[in-house]
TrEMBL record:
GO terms for molecular function: 4-hydroxy-tetrahydrodipicolinate reductase; NAD binding; NADP binding; oxidoreductase activity, acting on CH or CH2 groups, NAD or NADP as acceptor. The lineage of its organism: Bacteria, Bacillati, Actinomycetota, Actinomycetes, Actinomycetales. It comes from Schaalia georgiae F0490. The active site is at residues 132, 136. This is 4-hydroxy-tetrahydrodipicolinate reductase. HAMAP family: DapB. It holds the Pfam family DapB_C. Belongs to the DapB family. Pathway: Amino-acid biosynthesis; L-lysine biosynthesis via DAP pathway; (S)-tetrahydrodipicolinate from L-aspartate: step 4/4. Its main location: cytoplasm.
């Protein structure tokens, strides 16, 4: 039986994780922590693995505390950059523990990111539009950042230059953010959970790759897969692509 601690247990994702883990015959929730709780061996209640969905401002600190407490971690919180990954990788290796951090655990979203990378070298233009509920605190989404970086890597490897764009004046920022040269746009709309469209254009044609999470249950198969496999992957794993065999 895998013993699981949930960090951010009262949040939107934490609530779904507590329910999903509780419904599995091979795992149980042994601790539920929220803002204001201290992460320690005692408060983690003998957990083997902690699932962390909190806020970009607290996630890295929580992961270091989990490693210090001798627990492997599955992390869905966004806001990670390369320096933070490097610090956590070093800490996990030094502690002989495992951390898996993924910007998106939904199977459709992971596949959409991969499809975008495959398609990117074949199109002149590429833009990412992410659409989320208006209670989300970060923009653009972690998924959109990862998608844009994947597209940029694929374009670079294929020898493609900048996306075509004749815009000379944009005083209101209507052309969105640029992540590694790829335009990224963020929509916040009541009623949405999490969606993303990758628009790819050539003369006379367009390819749209779209993924929708209508409900947070969409993230649970990926989270449970990560909980079951994280401890057999020493150090840091980023994304669930390799766990899915992609
Ligand atoms: N990877 C993926 O597939 C997905 C990632 N996400 C990401 O997960 C994160 C959380 O999203 P969501 O659940 O919607 O957010 P919520 O705001 O609903 O939940 C966050 C929870 O974290 C708690 N919290 C805040 N700080 C701490 C802390 N230092 N220690 C412990 N708990 C803390 C909050 O508790 P309190 O209010 O008491 O402070 C709250 O209950 C975001 O970064 C989001 O982008 C979301 C969906 C899918
Ligand atoms: O905050 C959310 O809701 C989501 N956050 C993640 C992100 O920023 O990519 C994953 C998903 O899009 C839902």
């Amino acid at each position: 039986m895998k013993r699981v601690a949930v960090i951010g247990a009262s949040g939107r994702m934490g609530t779904a994780v507590v329910k999903a883990v509780g419904a599995c015959a091979d795992m149980e929730v042994v601790a539920r922590l929220n803002g204001g709780d201290t992460i320690s061996r005692e408060s983690l209640g003998g957990a083997d693995v902690a699932v962390e969905f909190t806020s970009p401002a607290s996630s890295e600190r929580n992961v270091h505390a989990l490693l210090d407490a001798g627990v492997d971690a599955v992390v869905g919180t966004t806001g990670w950059d390369d320096d933070a990954y490097a610090r956590v990788r070093a800490h996990a290796e030094e502690a002989g523990r495992s951390v898996l951090i993924a910007p998106n655990f939904a199977i459709g979203a992971v596949l959409a990111m991969r499809f975008a990378q495959i398609a990117a070298p074949f199109f002149e233009s590429a833009e990412v539009v992410e659409m989320h509920h208006p209670d989300k605190v970060d923009a653009p989404s972690g998924t959109a950042i990862a998608t844009a970086r994947g597209i940029a890597r694929a374009r670079g490897a294929a020898g493609l230059g900048d996306v075509p764009d004749a815009t000379e004046s944009d005083p209101h920022g209507a052309r969105g953010a640029r992540i590694d040269g790829v335009p990224v746009h963020a929509v916040r709309l009541r009623g949405l959970t999490a969606s993303e469209e990758v628009l790819l254009g050539n003369p006379g044609e367009q390819l749209v790759i779209r993924t929708d999470s209508f409900d947070r249950v969409s993230f649970m198969p990926g989270v449970l897969l990560a909980v079951r496999s994280v401890s057999s992957r020493p150090g840091l794993t980023v994304g669930i692509e390799s766990v899915m065999g992609l």
